[in-house]
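S.,

Sequence below, as promised.
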Amino acid sequence: MRTLRLLLLLAVPGAVTVLSWSTPAAAQVTESERAAARQLFKEGDELQRVGKFTDALDKFQRAQQVFSAPTNVLRIAECEAALGHLVASAESYRALVRTPLPAGSPPAFQAAVDQARGELAQVEPRVPKLVVQVEPPNVAAPQLQIDGQPVPAALLGEPFPLDPGPHKVLVYASGYVGAEQSVVLKERETRTLQVPLKSIAGVTYVPGSGPPPPPATTEVPPTALETSPGMPPPPPAIVDANAPGALHKRSRVALILGLHLGLELPAGQIPNPTGTSSAVDMSSVSGGGFAYALDAGIRFARYGYVGLTLEHAGLGAGGTPANLSANASGLSSNTTSLGAVIGVIGNPDRVSFFGELGFQARWYSLHYQDAGAQSASYSGAELLLGMGIWIPAGHTFRLLPEVTGGLGSFSTPNSTSSSDSNNPGHGFVMLGIGGLFNIDL
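The prediction came back faster than expected:
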């Protein structure tokens, strides 16, 4: 099991010293090898960005074998955490944090160590632990295996870090029937497992009908922490902020493009299209209807948003057209708005609150039959308010259930003037859900 092998490796005195980034006796690396390391890191970065963590981990480990660098180990730890290998991830972070950087190290190296320290504080509490206790407690020389790998008996009764998920625990001893149990660990959980052994005089249970498993060896396959001692620092091209080996940070600026679909609900009053002074209730001429909106903008300073929104809705028929005309029939209407907004996102990478405020222009058209086809066109300015839930659904896609509302007043029908202070007020509310693409810049 990879987790246990890694723990055994770390138990070897001085194992963490393999992360020394510079030693006078370091072997020289050719320019071809440096170019290969940069390419491996670049490929790993691209795979990590799209969530292919297994493939990305392989690329970063290969890059580390060519160039020993904190930036490589940081990415290895991140991929291990994403794959649920929390024990290995935490050990990679610890080794990176504990290893001192030589004088004159590139700034990106120190940035990697600082970032590792912060991410370690998030990963460590997530590692579950298992406490295995044997019954009866006075069993002589008990042997312990977890997931088929021998574990020192000294760890019986002590919290043992394991990755989340299912595990098999086997305990056996001379004169007892061995007992095997299964357990499923969750993140942040510490569980105690009682393993009862049944005594049978003169019987020794040995798994596989063979001799007891040999002592654990320290010879393990290469891991994320194995590097050639004294490997020289990466070339400047890797340290450069625009180079593949530069420290990856979440972007503070992104392009936002999206589409909203929902239900548009009108409310309030509009000026009477017949020219009389009596206002017309919008509910009497227009009902709720399907709406869609196009959104485009820029996320800045990580949490801010500024953009444009274009919305259109075909409204349903209203009720009785009071104050319009006794003979009015065949009512239909639609509305279009164009606005500019500024907003805030609680956390672009987590489920969080989204709010926006802005101004928009709205156009409203009403058509009906009254001794012939009649129509009226309205326009006006509105205050735009919106709030919703920002839901990440992948590396670039976001869902946004949102309620938006426009509050304002229309000019008189078929006019662009809104100087009449007696114009009644109206409101349009859209209940919808948006799909947005968050494209880091």
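DSSP finds seven helices and 19 strands in the chain.

Coffee later?
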